[in-house]
Amino acid sequence: MILRIDSLTFRYPNGTTALDGVSFGVEAGERVALVGPNGAGKSTLARHLIGIERPASGTIEIDGRRTDGLAIAELARTVGFVFQNPDDQLHASSVAKEVGFGPRNLRFAPDRRKELVESALRRTGLTDLVDAHPHHLSLGERKRVALASVLAMDTPVVVLDEPTTGQDHRSVALLGNLVDELAAEGRTVLAVTHDMDFCAEHFDRVIALEDGRIVADGPVEHWLARASRPTGHAFELPQLTRLGRRLGWQTPVATVEGFLDRLTSDAHDTAEAPAGP
Predict the structure, then answer these.
(1) One domain, residues 97 and 143
(2) What keywords does the record list, in alphabetical order (predicted)?
């Protein structure tokens, strides 16, 4: 298990409890979406994984090591964190320098560093922007630079905080493909997200938080079924799930592939139905 959190509790200095007894584990290669309303504790939980926040009580274990006392620089060898606002982490004078900073700081060998930087730039569609100043780029481009800088560090865990915010359709599609590729490579991806379409298309598991507690944890299909019920928790359903409900489908469908399969199945059933008198 790459990540284990046990009874994690966190309070802000004003006494507000942001996380209250949170416990779960994540296997290597899993794609896990952290969802919930604003103030549920999602980003606070994510920041614990890189040591920006520290527990009031409870433990966090990453790649077999407890994080107690580990510095942020040490945790960065295992967990790559892409902030919601890329300006919180971009600092270099060019895209190439920004993406190369992490592997250089981790003292990777020159050949490996070069390979990782080139791969990260290619995978994020930034090869034509290597000489550009990050702060002269659009928000979507800056978010891709931040993502590339984390990919180049080759961490086994990648954490994305609201990765689709400010991204156009092309960038969201690129990001979704990257999430799928990272999981296929055995790397673990956790994403804090309000984008339920992105969640349903590219994640296997959903952990839903409310008021600092986990209220649901399981496969994305189970979460959709629960959220679709009138008594379920108030989450925005994916567009295709809402469309399926309008078509009278009882079983939630959230992906394009699943939606087309269901349409094909319904058309087949209609064709097979006996003609009326």
Answers:
(1) yes
(2) ATP-binding, Nucleotide-binding, Transport
Residue 29, pLDDT > 90, answer yes
| Long-range pairs, 250-253, Cβ under 8 A, ≥24 | 251/225, 252/221, 252/224, 252/225, 252/228
For the chain, how many residues are written? 277
The closest of 150, 153, 154, 152 to 163, measured between CA atoms, is: 150
As given in the structure block, the two tokens for residue 75 are 């945790």
Collect all residues with Cβ–Cβ distance below 8 Å to 90 and sequence separation of at least 6: 98, 134, 135, 142, 145, 146, 149
The number of helix segments (H) and strand segments (E) in the chain equals 10, 10
**Same domain as 160, residue 74:** yes
Q: Are residues 145 and 160 in the same domain?
A: no
The CATH number that applies at residue 175 is 3.40.50.300
Report pTM.
0.85
60 and 176 in a single domain? The answer is yes
Look at residue 147 in the predicted model and tell me its pLDDT: 96
At residue 173, the 3 state secondary structure works out as helix
Single out the residue of 95, 98, 103 nearest to residue 128, CA to CA. Answer: 95
Closest to 200 (Cα-Cα) out of 183, 184, 222: 222
pLDDT digits (tens, 9 = 90+) for 202-253: 999 999 999 999 999 999 888 777 665 544 555 677 776 767 677 777 677 6
Range of the domain at 38: 1-78+155-235
Q: Would you say residue 83 lies in a domain?
A: no
